[in-house]
Amino acid sequence: MNDIAKKLLKEVSGLDEMPKGAYNIRENSKSVARQSSENIEIVSKEDKSGIDIIVKPDTKSENVFIPALVSCSGVHDLVYNDFFIGENADITIIAGCGVSTGDSCDGSEHNGIHRFFLGKNSKVRYVEKHIGEGTGTGKRVIDPVTEVIQEEGSYMEMETTQIKGVDSTRRFTTAKLKDGAKLVIKEKLMTHGEQFAESKFEVDMDGEDSSVNLISRSVARDYSRQTFISKINGNTRCMGHSECDAIIMDHGVVSAIPEITANSLDATLIHEAAIGKIAGDQMIKLMTLGLTEGEAEAKIIDGFLN
Amino acid sequence: MLKLENISFEVENEKEILKDVNLTIEKGKFIAITGPNGGGKSTLARIISGVLKPTKGKITFYGEDITNLSITERAQRGISFGFQQPVRFKGITVHDLVNIAKGEDLSVMEASHYLSEVGLCAKDYIHRELNDGLSGGEIKRIEIATIIARNTKLSIFDEPEAGIDLWSFNHLIDIFMKMHQSKENSIIIISHQERILDVADEIIAMVDGAIVKRGAKESVLPELLHCEDPKNCLNCQDILEA
């Protein structure tokens, strides 16, 4: 692994060295390091590029790292990762992708197709960070597709973060929830320059007392554009909530497009969206505490995306 | 300490909000500014803190002309301003705000001290976000805690009692008295509350954008309320409490 890849690995997953337990590190379309643990098995797919991550039932408090790195230009990576989470397991998955194109005018892209199959009463925390680096004109593109199938009583929490650096992202997430399943998605996004980001969610709550909570906080700077699309279908007694909170700066543009459909009298669905520039009062307050205008703006943005 | 000379403030196509205000405040003084709504009190406070620029006049702070200084520069020179309606922030915690006010990264224990000062149970609040989840009274007390943390030469409070319950209000008086023990720092409080007026060194009455009277409470209130005995007059009490 070269220095660029090591730096990306640290930024994406916080790793300085190979972690304990299960991991798979992918660099430039190839698996470069892998380890299974007693409870978490990682195996290559036979028909296409990618891995299966198989978590035994009742596995508790284990982490699995699956970062993907693109450390040079001209790479077009497509990977299929499937997660099979056993009943009553409780694990954390640290994923994420770093794309570096250096000073090249050739772009690179990473497209991860992830499927999650959560067994009954299992619990997954999924943490994903996207990083883009490079000084050349080569575009850095990350288009993740995520499909989540949750059995009865399972819980999935997804935290996704993408702060600057990635020129184009189209994220598409779908989920199907059975009885008592809960899904929480927290998305943090900052775009700048002329970047474009689209986040699209489609969630079907098919089971009684299932729930989903989608929370998106984003900042669009310079001439960047963002679109947040959330489709939530309440097909039985269930609770759905989506929230899009966006700060626009400079010439940034943000669209929030909610679609909530109650197919049952017992479905409760809420969508909230707020888009606007930083409130003048917030800037003034922090300036009365001694911060400069630039410092106040940075504090507000940092807090908002924290 | 603070000198305002011929300060006027007018908004285009509207009436003059401040009319040729002259005011000198000495070091270590506790001044209460009172008067009817729309009299220009909050505008004056905002002009001193730099949130508004006067259309005419000069402001001097410890001998320095600060008329053209920004909000930040005035804050850095030692002016603090507590908002009448504190601002809320998504994602910024109470601890963050106290750190910003103090200008350094405080430990939880150090930051908690300032919350205890304003009667908040620190462990329940220190990690809370300054968002809509806090009540008006809670965020007001946090606002006051940030001013205490700054400990600057001049602290200005715009109606600190607004939104605060009775128990907290009693505590609030104690806070101001404690701050006033410093003979180096000055306090300006805009208030309608007689109990705050009671503990101030001097009262300034503002009506229609001008200072109409300055002095001890006994001499200022009768003129302001056009009543000889405002303390025992039910009508005056209603006006003051309003």
From TrEMBL, chain A:
This protein is called ABC transporter permease
Extract the InterPro entries matched here.
Fe-S_cluster_assembly_SufBD, SUF_FeS_clus_asmbl_SufBD_core, SUF_FeS_clus_asmbl_SufBD_sf
Q: Where is the SUF system FeS cluster assembly SufBD core domain?
A: 85-304
Natural source organism: Acetobacterium malicum
For this protein, the record's Pfam families field holds: SUFBD_core
Q: Which domain of life is it from?
A: Bacteria
Family classification:
Belongs to the iron-sulfur cluster assembly SufBD family.
From TrEMBL, chain B:
Key word ATP-binding present = yes
Keywords in alphabetical order: ATP-binding, Nucleotide-binding, Transport
**A single MF term (Gene Ontology):** ATP binding
Query: What InterPro entries does the database record attribute to this sequence?
Result: AAA+_ATPase (IPR003593), ABC_transporter-like_ATP-bd (IPR003439), ABC_transporter-like_CS (IPR017871), Metal_Ion_Import_ABC (IPR050153), P-loop_NTPase (IPR027417)
Give the domain of life.
Bacteria
Residue ranges of every copy of the ABC transporter domain listed in the record: 2-233
Family classification = Belongs to the ABC transporter superfamily.
This chain's protein is named: ATP-binding cassette domain-containing protein
